[in-house]
Amino acid sequence: MRKFKWLFLLVILVMSVSLVVAGCGGQSNSGEENNGAENNAEAQKEKPKFTYAMSGLYKPFNYKDGGNLVGFDVEIGAAIAERMGMEPNPVTNPWETLIQGLKANKYDAIIGSMAITEQRQEQVDFSRPYYRSGAQVFISADNEEIKSPEDLVGKKIGVVKASTFKEVALEYTDEQNVVGYDSDVIALQDLPTGRIDAVITDQMVGLVAMKNELKIKDVGDPLWVDEMAIPVNKGNTELLDKINTALEEIINDGTYEQISEKWFGRSILGE
């Protein structure tokens, strides 16, 4: 009987020691798990997003390739976001509603080759220009009738909807003969078909299309020179200052020139 009593006590003692060891081990593992979770959370902590909009239909400035947004505007926006310590988040919106979307706070800024105009300045605040380019007339390569802008009188002219190009087209022809397109590229592609006689668009867009062997040609000198800048909501001086500072940085450190060389073979800053 005494033998069984001692055996019972021995079992109790072993179980107690096991519980103490397990308790200590559990506490240590819990600490390690907590530390691991904190480190993981820190590693996964996201930078604030810089959401900037464009039409996504303005090759080579901004367009979709394999479902991804690419182009000069996209890369300039990414470089600006990096300098501001933010995550780039380019999005698309129809060109004619870009400013409305900005005012509705759908995005932080527009980096979509938008020219500074007095009318737009009434609605938004612009950054410093990030490139300059001219409005250019383009025609089909086999068109021998149009030799200067003056020959556009009464002709059918293609322009992007809600763009400043429509205003100048109306100086040469009537409303019926101004054809609106969602994309400059589609308008230019319509020239060889004969559905339109000319297109007024950004000089760079047309020159890149010619480089890619679209059978078109330019007519005369640019009609005017536009300054493209980055709109933000009226009164958002904090963001505007950050964007301007970031722009200066990428211009001064060569990042801007590198991006411009990639897409155009030269700097298009125009300073």
Helices and strands in order, then pairings?
Layout: H1 2-43, E1 49-54, E2 57-58, E3 62-65, E4 68-70, H2 72-83, E5 87-92, H3 98-103, E6 109-110, E7 114-115, H4 118-121, E8 124-126, E9 131-140, E10 157-160, H5 165-169, E11 178-181, H6 184-189, E12 198-202, H7 203-211, E13 216-229, E14 231-233, H8 237-252, H9 255-264
Parallel strand pairs: 1-5, 1-6, 10-11, 10-12
Antiparallel strand pairs: 2-3, 3-4, 7-13, 8-14, 9-12, 9-13
Keywords: Signal
Protein name: Polar amino acid transport system substrate-binding protein
Subcellular location: Cell envelope
What does this structure look like?
The chain is 41% helix and 25% strand. It is an alpha/beta fold and 271 residues long. The strands form 4 sheets. Strands 7-13-9-12-10-11 form a 6-stranded mixed β-sheet. Strands 5-1-6 form a 3-stranded parallel β-sheet. Helix 2 runs antiparallel to helix 9. Residues 1-14, 16-33 and 40-44 have low confidence and may be disordered. It comes from Desulfotruncus arcticus DSM 17038. InterPro entries: SBP_3_CS, Solute-binding_3/MltF_N. This is Polar amino acid transport system substrate-binding protein. Its main location: other.
